[in-house]
Design brief:
Blueprint (H helix, E strand, L loop, with lengths): L4 E2 L1 H7 L5 E5 L12 E3 L20 H10 L7 E5 L7 H10 L5 E4 L2 H7 L26 E2 L1 H10 L3 E4 L3 H5 L18 E2 L6 E2 L2 E2 L2 H11 L6 E4 L6 H11 L4 E4 L2 H29 L17
Parallel strand pairs: 1-5, 2-3, 2-4, 4-5, 6-12, 7-8, 7-11, 11-12
Antiparallel strand pairs: 9-10
Helix pairs in contact: 3-8, 7-8
C-alpha cells in the first residue's frame, strides 16, 4: 500500500532538507505560512484558464514551466499543504503524480495542524528564486474525459465514484454553480469526501478501509468525480492508502457532465423536431436521411 501522507511532526524534523519543497496550495495567499513554503497558484498558474470549466488540468508545458519557476527539480521531495487542513492539497498531489513525479506527499492536517502544534510560522512566503529543472511526463491514463464517461455508462469498464454530498448526488440539494442542475452520472457511486476526514485530517487507515468496504467492492479501475475535480482527489488519495485498484480522475467532473449533457439533450430535441418536419413534408414517400443532419452523430 502507498503512504501519501506526512505528519507535521515529520515536516518539522525534516524542514531543513535542501531537497524539500513546501507548497501552500490554499485558494488564496495566507499571512501565516509554514517556513520555507512557496505559494502554488492552483486557479491560475496551474489550471487551463482557457477552459470554460473550473480547475481544468493544464497543458504539460505550462505545468512544467510553472513548477520550475517554484524551484522544483525532478529530484525534489514535495510536501503539499493548505489552510483548510485537507481540501486542495490532494488535488495538487494527484497533479504531480499524473505528471510523473512520485516523490510528493500531502501534509495531513495542513496549516491548522501545524499551528495546533505551536510550530514556528512566518508571515511571508519564501523568496528563494532558484529556477528548477522539473520535467513533466504526463500519465494520460490517469485523466478521464467526458467521452470516457459516456462510453463507460454502457461498457462499465471502470467504477465511477462521486465525492459530492449526498444531497447534490441525489438531486435534492442545489449545485453551488449557478444554473447547473444537481444529480448524478448513471452507474456512479456516492462517497462524500467529508466521510473520510476528521478535524481537517484523514481518518485512520482502519476507518477508511471500513468506509470503502461498506460503500462498494470492485476490482475494476476507480475513477473519481466531484463538482470540479478537487474533492474527487481527497477520496482518490484515501483509496490509494488501502486499495490496489488503478485510479484516475474525471477532470471535468459534474460541472462538465451536466453542462454537456444538457447541450446534448437540446440537440436531440432539435433532431426530433427536424425529423417530425421532414416526415410531414415527405408526402411523396421519399426516405428520410439521417446523414444530412450532423447533430445525429454527436
Amino acid at each position: 500500500m502507498k503512504h501519501p501522507l506526512k505528519s507535521v511532526t515529520w515536516l518539522r524534523e525534516n524542514i531543513e532538507n535542501s531537497k524539500l519543497i513546501i507548497l501552500d496550495v490554499s485558494s488564496s495567499k495566507q499571512n501565516i505560512v509554514i517556513p520555507r513554503a512557496k505559494y502554488f497558484d492552483l486557479s491560475n498558474k496551474f489550471s487551463d484558464t482557457s477552459s470554460s470549466f473550473p480547475n481544468t488540468f493544464p497543458p504539460v508545458e505550462q505545468f512544467e514551466s510553472e513548477s520550475r519557476n517554484l524551484g522544483i527539480n525532478s529530484t525534489s521531495q514535495i510536501i503539499i499543504y493548505d489552510s483548510k487542513g485537507i481540501y486542495f492539497s490532494p488535488r495538487v498531489w494527484w497533479m504531480y503524480k499524473t505528471m510523473g513525479h512520485e516523490n510528493v506527499f500531502v501534509l495531513n492536517g495542513g496549516l491548522p495542524e501545524w499551528i495546533n502544534h505551536d510550530f514556528e510560522t512566518d508571515s511571508e512566503y519564501s523568496t528563494l528564486n532558484n529556477h528548477g529543472t522539473f520535467k513533466a511526463i504526463l500519465h494520460s491514463t490517469k485523466l478521464y474525459s467526458y467521452k470516457d464517461i459516456i462510453r463507460n455508462i454502457n461498457t462499465k469498464k471502470f467504477q465511477l465514484i462521486d465525492a459530492r454530498s449526498e444531497g447534490r448526488f441525489s438531486g435534492k440539494s442545489p449545485e453551488p454553480r449557478e444554473g447547473l442542475k444537481s444529480g448524478n452520472i448513471p452507474n456512479s457511486i456516492n462517497l462524500p469526501y467529508e466521510r473520510l476526514l476528521s478535524d481537517g485530517k484523514y481518518k485512520s487507515k482502519k476507518e477508511i478501509e471500513l468506509i470503502f468496504n461498506t460503500t462498494f467492492k470492485s476490482n475494476k479501475p476507480l475513477v473519481f468525480s466531484c463538482g470540479s475535480g478537487v474533492t474527487a482527489c481527497i477520496v482518490l488519495l484515501a483509496s490509494e492508502m488501502i486499495l490496489d485498484n488503478e485510479t484516475g480522475v474525471y477532470d471535468g467532473s459534474w460541472t462538465e457532465y451536466a453542462s454537456l449533457t444538457k447541450t446534448f439533450i437540446k440537440k436531440v430535441e432539435l433532431i426530433k423536431r427536424i425529423i417530425n418536419r421532414q416526415t410531414t413534408s415527405c408526402s411523396n414517400g421519399s426516405p428520410f436521411h439521417f446523414s444530412r443532419y450532423p447533430f445525429w452523430h454527436y
